[in-house]
Amino acid sequence: MSRPAxxxxxxxxxxxxxxxxxxxxxxxxxxxxxxxxxxxPWRKGQENEVTSDAATRDLYSQxxxxxxxxxxxxxxxxxxxxxxxxxxSDGLTVDAVELLRLDRRSRASLAAMAHGTQANxxxxxxxxxxxxxxxxxxxxxxxxxxELNPQHKGGARRxxxxxxxxxxxxxxxxxxxxxxxxxxxxxxxxxxxDPGQPAEADVHGRWLYHMYLATQSVPDEAAVAALLTREYxxxxxxxxxxxxxxxxxxxxxxxxxxPGRQESYYAGSSFRHRTGYADAFALAKLQDIxxxxxxxxxxxxxRSEPRRVDVARLERTVLVLxxxxxxxxxxxxxxAHAMLRRQYEExxxxxxxxxxxxxxxxxxxxxxxxxxxxxxxxxxxxxxxxLPLGTGLxxxxxxxxxxxxxxxxxxxxVGVVILVLVTAFPGLRRLVFDAVxxxxxxx
Length: 443
Fold this sequence. Notes:
With about 450 residues, the chain is an alpha+beta fold. The protein folds into 3 domains: about 10-275, no CATH class; about 285-365; about 375-440, no CATH class. The chain is built from 13 helices and 12 strands. It has helices spanning about 55-60, 65-70, 105-110, 140-145, 155-165, 205-215, 220-225, 265-305, 310-325, 335-345, 350-395, 405-425, 425-440, and strands spanning about 15-25, 35, 40, 50, 75-80, 90-100, 120-130, 170, 180-185, 230, 240-245, 245-250. Strands 1, 2, 5, 6, 7, 8, 9, 10, 11 and 12 form a 10-stranded mixed β-sheet that branches. It has a two-stranded antiparallel sheet with strand order 3-4. Strand 11 and strand 12 form a beta hairpin. Helix 8 (about 265-305) packs antiparallel against helix 9 (about 310-325), helix 8 (about 265-305) packs parallel to helix 10 and helix 9 (about 310-325) packs antiparallel against helix 11. The termini are far apart.
């Protein structure tokens, strides 16, 4: 029997993980942070105890992701001491903060981009919604927890979250909403969130709807059914739905501790939620950051007068990002891999990278053609100036009276010939005009 939707005790776990892009400018590691991912125990004190360190995560996935996701060079964590966890005005308690940045080579590539990147890393904030909130208020609380828009309530939520991050790390300029991962369980049955629903209504499906969209609006059956096409089918007393907004896991049976066990079945769900699932969304965010930075740099180059070496450098950067980050996966961790692949597909990264490479090829061709034309024009200019000037000087040196007056009389027609040649040939004329324009811009 479920409790009413306005009874806070109707929901036990109300865990939240927030993932969003950040701009990391300070020292690494920041004060108070330790190397590697946050350490979360599962089956603590038992023979089969698991701790979420880098080696264990790699063992469970067999994916070789340590240099990209879990090495101390790219991943740090901080867990506040007991009683010191930050608590927002909306009821979010922060249990741990993780920072994940691009690897050394990718960071160097982004730093070389003249446009200046808006993001170079990801923050993973682990927390929980207040136990005092009734279930019906949880979707709204989740929406506020993920709110990063500087225009929302004067940017109060964004300012608070920036305060949770260490000095030198700030929410990326273009970030407006955090991706949210939520897990809810109940000691009995989850209550019906929407009043007036028949007894046979899909309670868990509506929980997935409300928590994924973080909305309190009452949907019709068609809207719920449409969203549930995103549901990811797993076994073991849970229902999971994920997409671009994040992921929601809902328990389908009461959370109890069975005799002879120290923790409930859903402790395992919580562990996977905060480790493999969060890692999948963090890597997806890094992929998007890398591709967005390359797109912005391509646009900057297209609007300027790039050199061939600039285009070649960006081509190499895109190739490295594609081989290192975009080709990464979670191997044997089937659930995390499926989440990463769907994020990859829904962000359109494959198409964006293909367009990026095609546009880079076209830009490279244009730059090569332009540089070839400039080279030919320079050689033509040398010939247009050198040949008449050499001929004139040869004639002048053969004159009986090769003085200053005769030199100027010789150079005058030579100058006229040079002017006619430069004016007559478009390539030479464009080269001279471009040089004059560049000099005007510098002055």
